[in-house]
Amino acid sequence: MFQLCILCQIMFLIVDEIQIRTLNTGNTDSYTNPNIFEDYISLSDYHMFPSEKQSVRFTIEACHDAFILLSAAFDLKSHDFYEICLGGSGNQDTYLRRKYNDANPFKISTPDILGCTEKSTFEIRWTIEGTIHIAKESAVGTETIIDVKDSTPLLIRGVGIRTAWGSDGLWIFESASMQTHGTQDNGEVSEICRTCLDEIWIQTLDSGNVDATKIPDVFNYYTNLSNYHILPSQNQFRISVKACHDAFILLSAAKDLQSPDFYEICIGARNNNSTVLRRNFSSNNVVSTLTPGTLSCTNRTTFFVSWEINGQITLKKETSDRPGGVFRWTDTT
Ligand SMILES: *[C@@H]1O[C@H](CO)[C@@H](O)[C@H](O)[C@H]1NC(C)=O
Ligand SMILES: *[C@@H]1O[C@H](CO)[C@@H](O)[C@H](O)[C@H]1NC(C)=O
Ligand SMILES: *[C@@H]1O[C@H](CO)[C@@H](O)[C@H](O)[C@H]1NC(C)=O
Ligand SMILES: *[C@@H]1O[C@H](CO)[C@@H](O)[C@H](O)[C@H]1NC(C)=O
Ligand SMILES: *[C@H]1O[C@H](CO)[C@@H](O)[C@H](O)[C@H]1NC(C)=O
Hints:
single chain; binds 2-acetamido-2-deoxy-beta-D-glucopyranose; disordered N terminus; elongated; mainly beta; 6-stranded antiparallel β-sheet
């Protein structure tokens, strides 16, 4: 979708960085798993298209085993790829594998290339002639880690990330990696518009059988919208979700979500049969309403959430035929 810059600034999000948290995907890689690409998160889900610039730059915090997939397919669903592992073998090696079961990956010793609590910045560049260049940036300069040429190059269309072998990761992509959506004649404005996005898709992984009826610090299981520079300010926001059931929204008293004072909404609870609202850690729902089949595994469903100073919370579902209220409830405390 294409949006004019001016619109962009008024109506859409301006983002200067995107953070993605990847959970450990287990003891798996392209050496043993032919469908390893299914374990990757595609940057295109976040509206980042590094293939256009043939490079990707990111900062990562992970103890070891940060993987990048350079794929022949836009959606990563291809057996034709390069898999790069930074800090493999317990943060000892970095390697580049060309395909599944590639027994002779390009491998070099890179002790402590990653750090559990340290942010490391990397840039990966490639060309259609088959060169792949990986460099690490630090205060003392830029160090080339890998510089290779593949004699049978592949045309890279998609880029994915994941962490594995017991490692979780926090990845930060700055706006320069993102796609340009706005254009304007005025130079100053288009400078800002380089970072205009018209929508952001966030992939959330199953956080397990936890909710505010079960654990007091459930807020630690939420993805923080402020990390995406989404700061609902008008006491309302619109969100589309594609999920089979159990889509949770936390309305927290704290900017960083670290507060026991919150509302938890669960859309499509009980196997997609009901929608509930909870206040704080509690075994009781303050609202529970029947909404059979409200979410769809395959289609986006759009909801509108709003809240008012008098404690009224409203959830509406937007459908093409009839926009309908799911619930409206007023908290008297
Ligand atoms: C949410 O983001 C804020 C600001 O970036 C940060 O201080 C806080 O720790 C984050 N909270 C969680 C639960 O990730
Ligand atoms: C929710 O938690 C906050 C903070 O602990 C507390 O001040 C408030 O009274 C609680 N509200 C309800 C309805 O339990
Ligand atoms: C929920 O909906 C499913 C069909 O989607 C149905 O089989 C089931 O009995 C309903 N009730 C519960 C509590 O899961
Ligand atoms: C999903 O959307 C398509 C196209 O808009 C429509 O034909 C289909 O019926 C929808 N499926 C569901 C489960 O709502
Ligand atoms: C929730 O309802 C939608 C629409 O009927 C359906 O496509 C989806 O499979 C349901 N999810 C579950 C877990 O039943």
